[in-house]
TrEMBL record, chains A, B, C:
Keywords: 2Fe-2S, Iron, Iron-sulfur, Metal-binding, Methyltransferase, Oxidoreductase, Transferase. GO terms for biological process: methylation. The keyword Transport does not apply. This is Vanillate O-demethylase oxygenase. It holds the Pfam family Rieske. The keyword DNA-binding does not apply. It comes from the Bacteria. GO terms for molecular function: 2 iron, 2 sulfur cluster binding; metal ion binding; methyltransferase activity; oxidoreductase activity. InterPro entries: Cholesterol_7-desaturase, Rieske_2Fe-2S, Rieske_2Fe-2S_sf, VanA_C_cat.
Amino acid sequence: MDEFIRNAWYPLAWSRDISQSLTQRRILGQLVVLYRKASGTVVALDDACPHRLAPLSMGRLKDDNIECGYHGLTFDCSGQCIRIPGQPVIPPNARVRAYPIVENMGLAWIWMGDPALADPSKVFDLPQYHDANWSAVEGDALEIGCHYLNLADNLCDPAHVSFVHLSTLGNSASEDIPVHSEKQGDTFLTWRWILDAPAIPLFQKFGNFAGNVDRWHYYHYTPPCIAMVDFGSAPTGTGAPDGERSNSLQIFACHFITPVDAERCIDHWLFVKNFQTDEATTQAMIGQFRTAFDEDKTILEAIHLNEKEPRNTRPVRIAIDASPMRMRRAVDKIIETEKSFAQSGGANAA
Amino acid sequence: MDEFIRNAWYPLAWSRDISQSLTQRRILGQLVVLYRKASGTVVALDDACPHRLAPLSMGRLKDDNIECGYHGLTFDCSGQCIRIPGQPVIPPNARVRAYPIVENMGLAWIWMGDPALADPSKVFDLPQYHDANWSAVEGDALEIGCHYLNLADNLCDPAHVSFVHLSTLGNSASEDIPVHSEKQGDTFLTWRWILDAPAIPLFQKFGNFAGNVDRWHYYHYTPPCIAMVDFGSAPTGTGAPDGERSNSLQIFACHFITPVDAERCIDHWLFVKNFQTDEATTQAMIGQFRTAFDEDKTILEAIHLNEKEPRNTRPVRIAIDASPMRMRRAVDKIIETEKSFAQSGGANAA
Amino acid sequence: MDEFIRNAWYPLAWSRDISQSLTQRRILGQLVVLYRKASGTVVALDDACPHRLAPLSMGRLKDDNIECGYHGLTFDCSGQCIRIPGQPVIPPNARVRAYPIVENMGLAWIWMGDPALADPSKVFDLPQYHDANWSAVEGDALEIGCHYLNLADNLCDPAHVSFVHLSTLGNSASEDIPVHSEKQGDTFLTWRWILDAPAIPLFQKFGNFAGNVDRWHYYHYTPPCIAMVDFGSAPTGTGAPDGERSNSLQIFACHFITPVDAERCIDHWLFVKNFQTDEATTQAMIGQFRTAFDEDKTILEAIHLNEKEPRNTRPVRIAIDASPMRMRRAVDKIIETEKSFAQSGGANAA
């Protein structure tokens, strides 16, 4: 699997990590150079001078333009070469590709597909992120040595929590509870409720539940790169399963996935919660999530390596795979559609 | 060369290294998970859950069964899945392959071939290992970065001792003495006698020879993985070459070879000697062997790399190659026989 | 690109690094063992015993011969096997290839092609290296992770100096000055003059120019491995552009290139100057060159990696590429000529 959906807004980097200096990122197997203009706007270009292929990220920022570090060819923010030292004429192909970028939710999002289809209003947004009654906390850029769809599988799969995240996000009370799934628009929703059970370690630490709770895990995954896990707990019998959440602790854990190449992805994660915490508690919660997502990383990387091993048997599929399998078929179909669209001339055709 | 003889008992691990916890080994290019049951019996299974391919060795031992660390699928010692959390039905293909294991001479031996042919009585044994008049000393699991047949070449080859092991097992007295070889049943025997010469460094350190000795090196190699070097010395003129060994120091150095894959093997070595030593002397002898086998490792790894280099010339074969060449042809023939047997239906046919 | 010109004297190692001990080098993708005889002559042989392919460089020097460390086969300086322990007969193919070697300008030069064509008088020489009025200073063996022709491009290219070497060999005064080029015999000459401009940092440090200077950069490159950069400065208006160099500081910077394989090369560099310096100043000048050539290494290695990346666009060629492009075509033609010559029987034909 080394093909990617191209017409999508992908997370490229945390906004906090982008400044008026050149930096390199890899996404969908390609290298881009990234920087912020004096005005604050973010620029992303192919990271190779079309002359000798020196990485532009090794060059110099001159005003808002990049001067190549090898022979001084200079490119503006649109990727157009505007200077070739020693010669007055600039050949028409002396340009690099520039990618549309928008910033939202603390991240710069890049459009690697047909620029004519890049609609900034389509970038993912979670309204609560901007809501003063909620509290948003930025996490890390966690690199995982696996194909991004294996991480996507994991994010269509509440069942793994009972076995992978015993010290943080899950406990054994949920082991045998089946999951449900349905497709809602472009989103694959997978969920389950665990009723009248002890709170998970995270809420035992940071909640104040006296007794058992009703808890939910709703996994929303929208291909290719948006996952949002809505989970929370309320005292048992206070009506949470019927929609009454005023007594609940609720967290939206977002995972915005950067497919680096076929072997690696980056999980840009953050969470938005319906309760305030002091700084020390916030840091402790970040620590809990870091522990949990490192557990995912460990198992996903082991699986990635095992997938390259010789096999005696064919994979077994079980009930909880319904959602990831449906998701995989949808991704294949999107890629196929993009390809036929591109072959028929793309957005510029007809 | 990436094909292996399959119908054989291969050393997998020292018994001392196997406990009631999960550990991973690679053999014949395949990963297996290894553990000891409460009863003491050793279990080996393919190390991949057939669901998502998570390594079972990253799971948890629950009684004598393995629970996968990703979704809790549980496998018994026969490799049968006995639990899938969240669903009552277990698909018939939810199983992993289990491999026959026997323990002998301090090692667990695995059968990677047709289980119907696995006869525990055929595992290699050296009677002196169990004889109270002899003394057995376990060595290491020495990983060598070469194809196991290059190590096997070395173990059909007493001549290298004069040049590789000058500080331990050989000296220059033997440089020009030809080797003899013959096939005895399935075993390739290669040997030479060095008469009336100074003792080798090992026996100068740990023997008490006043003058010159008659010494012998008998290399027994039985494909694919059993090598036993019978070597020793007796005072010159006391009749050792005619079979009188009562005055001799004699050592059986065993090399039990694990082909890890086409690029690596493990030499599980031990030795059995006809004389007792105190602990300090035993450790010093282990040190001498360790030095010697590291010398083999160094040269075998260099050859392994050089075999991948472009060549101007074809290899030269000399007199001492008769035994390794015959051995190589026999191995090729066994592999071919196994393949035709497998194609005709294996042990279950007819 | 993994083909090399073979009929040429290539630098193999600094003479200072060759002694009466065995050492290994890789050139044109091949491993050779290198040592100095008692008489001082340098010997180079293929670094693999033709028996089991053990590297001869892991063997022992016995007088001027090499004894293989595995089974004692012994080879003389012509590569002929002169001893096989344990057998009297030496098969006719028991030999390794020996390569012609000459020493000049502090380096051992090897001939990897048809030995019948190896003419020691054709090894590169710079007369000033031996001239008492000039001063020669040896530099390093700088390994660069790129194809040697990318380094050769760089050495047909004075223009990069204005952007890569701002702290040492260039300054911005030259940015927009075009380069000239012509082929002189087998040599590709590329040059430019920068008139009435501040001295470059190197000459600001080590020269005594009161005002502006006229400076020149003449890049001489003779495929496959000889580059000599003639550069210098004289006070503006003292006639340097017309040939009057008596007031000038002049340096010949030599780069003798060893193609290690398709991924690496070694730049053996030295310089010869028309002025004397004390030891501390000489060391400081070496430091300046080291800084400059490390800057080339950094950019050449980044380009080498970028050349393996997927590309959206075709390379752009600009005016300064005329010389490297012509050089590349000439190299291709030499390789093709050598191939047809070899196919028609080589120097031994007709």
